[in-house]
Amino acid sequence: MKRDVRILLLGEAQVGKTSLIMALVGEEFPEEVPPRAEEITIPADVTPEKVPTHIVDYSESEQTEDELQEEIAKANVVCVVYDVTKEATIEKIRTKWIPMVNGGVEKGSRIPIILVGNKSDLQMGSSMDVILPIMNQFSEIETCVECSAKNLKNISELFYYAQKAVLHPTAPLYDPEEKQLKPACARALTRIFSLSDQDNNQILSDDELNYFQKSCFGNPLAPQALEDVKMVVWKNTTDGVQDNGLTLNGFLFLNTLFIQRGRHETTWTILRRFGYDDELELTDDYLHPQFRVPPGCSTELNHLGYQFLQRLFEKHDKDQDGALSPTELQNFFSVFPCVPWGAKLYNTVCTTDKGLLSLHGFLCQWTLVAYLDVRHCLECLGYLGYPILSEQDSQTQALTVTREKRIDLEKGQTQRNVFLCKVLGARGAGKSAFLQAFLGRSLALYEVSADLKFMKPSDAACDVACFIYDLSDPKSFSYCASIYKQHYMDSQIPCVFVASKTDLPEASQQPGLSPAEFCYKHCLPPPFLFSCHGQGPPGTTVYTKLATAATFPHLNAVELGAASFWLRVALGTAVTALVGFTLYRVLAKNK
Questions:
Q1: How many C-beta atoms lie closer than 10 Å to residue 190's C-beta?
Q2: Distinct helix (H) and strand (E) counts, the chain
Q3: What would the pLDDT profile of 356-372 be if each residue is shown by its tens digit?
Q4: DSSP letters of 249-295?
Q5: Model confidence at 490: pLDDT above 70
């Protein structure tokens, strides 16, 4: 919403523009009227909409054509004043003033206009019969107000309507020629309906309507008022009310009715409560609330975030089978401008035996997004309506910033629930098979492509690094050794080496030290053996070591061996207290 309003008064000489301004300010009809009033500013605290309002007068005898055009360009709304007793001043609205203000301007960019019929005290009847054809001709005309500067009739109302035309514009919402909501407005209201339909039955029940009403306007509707609303919709639509609740068509009709009756501020209140700006886009402040993450800290969903997401999962699990089908997932993302998760999701999180997205896998993915890209996580929670549905100031309440890792190292303990393991290795070393083998374990595994160039410290940053080399390929280990020496040797990041494809004959790694000698030289645990082709699922030794190293990064190789035992004992509580986590594959070519 605009921070202030600039109102320009135009019209023929002697129609009373200056008198109207002076009557508003002085609250009495001026005895002497100057050729032009100085620009005045009305403070926010005395205006109905609580925004500063600047009122600008125009005098043809005092100002040049260039000055007039400059004032029109700065105005948010133009009041075209006419004398109700002189038809010539009314005709000039059509032939002179509106073309001057909006001539050649595209429909969506036109300045809103308020028609002001002054000197109503000198006429018994109304000028509306003459004005209505003009209003029908020009869609930018918001309304017409008949008033009297002399009798102080409708003076404050005139400026209220001018304010409202700026702060609650009709143009983005409604097409007066088609007599229907504009597509962008209908899309925004459809999203709001979907978020408010908390049981996902395509109908807003009385409880859902009252929750919506209280969220937007502060108070629920009285029972009779609620019935009256539904009765109006029922009488005017064929499918607006079903099962004693409001359908989407009924909800859209109701907002159309508000606008047609000049109550478009009601629809704007709804839109702004759900984060929309004057262009019907979600504001950056809403999608990306300020959220500071100091260096060395990470981000995790907290219990509020998990509870909210679980409720939404259950809402969209229509068949209550504990999983989201592709159709149910598409419905979940209907409130987004585009689907943020692609088909690769099903290869990176746990799914059911039918290949559907389980609650566990669903929460895994959200855990990962919160850890890897907190800005994107805040944006997604915004699309899902977290602040409104959770009655919180913003979606930052769904996240926790962990303590700096430096402090964890100093204290020898961590408060984190999510750990990131980067899996590195040459092409063909078996990284993907390794990740798939531990899918669903309590560690976020992140595959780094062999093509990735480490350009900045964050490229290497993680809680534990896992270097995988192909035991059967004599050149595979040298890649791991090179990356380790360049980016990890002098860091405090714990590192673990894994020899993959142990079901194949071992080859002598060339050149330099053997993997075991290399690890011994750099005070690292000896390489762990791994194969995905053995009998049964792979052992948990490697996984436990990675989890232990991430959880206790201050321990050396010997101490880690002892800690592994205690981690195995407490693995179900210490690391997986909230939710099992996931793996994540990132290929440089897909970035």
A1: 16
A2: 25, 20
A3: 999 988 998 999 899 98
A4: HHHHHHHHHHHHTT-HHHHHHHHHHTTB-TTSSB-HHHHS------T
A5: yes
May I ask the CATH class of domain 5-167? alpha beta
The kind and range of the H/E element at 7 are strand 5-11
- Name the token pair of 562: 């002892």
* Predicted local confidence at residue 587, as pLDDT: 31
Q: Dig out the tokens for 462 from the structure.
A: 């993680």
C-beta of residue 244 within 8 angstroms of C-beta of residue 256:
no
Q: Which CATH number fits domain 285-402: 3.90.870.30, 1.10.238.10, 3.40.50.2300, 1.10.510.10?
A: 1.10.238.10
Rounded Cα–Cα distance for residues 99 and 268 (Å): 28
Q: What are the backbone angles phi and psi of residue 308, rounded to the nearest 5°? A: -60, -45
pLDDT at 568: 44
State the Cα angle at 181 between 175 and 186, rounded to 5°: 145
Cis amide prior to 511 (ω within 30 degrees): yes
> Shortest CA distance to 580 belongs to which of 401, 443, 438, 421?
443
Let me know the angle formed at the C-alpha of 361 by 196 and 352, rounded to the nearest 5 degrees.
Answer: 105
419-590, superfamily in CATH? P-loop containing nucleotide triphosphate hydrolases (3.40.50.300)
Give the pLDDT confidence of 534-588 residue by residue, as tens digits. 655 555 778 888 888 888 776 655 555 544 444 444 443 333 333 333 434 333 2
pLDDT for the residue numbered 555: 66
Nearest Cα residue to 370 out of 423, 306, 325, 314: 306
What the block records as the tokens of 420 is 């990131």
Output the CA–CA distances (angstroms, integers) from residue 326 to 343, 355, 561, in the order listed: 10, 10, 44
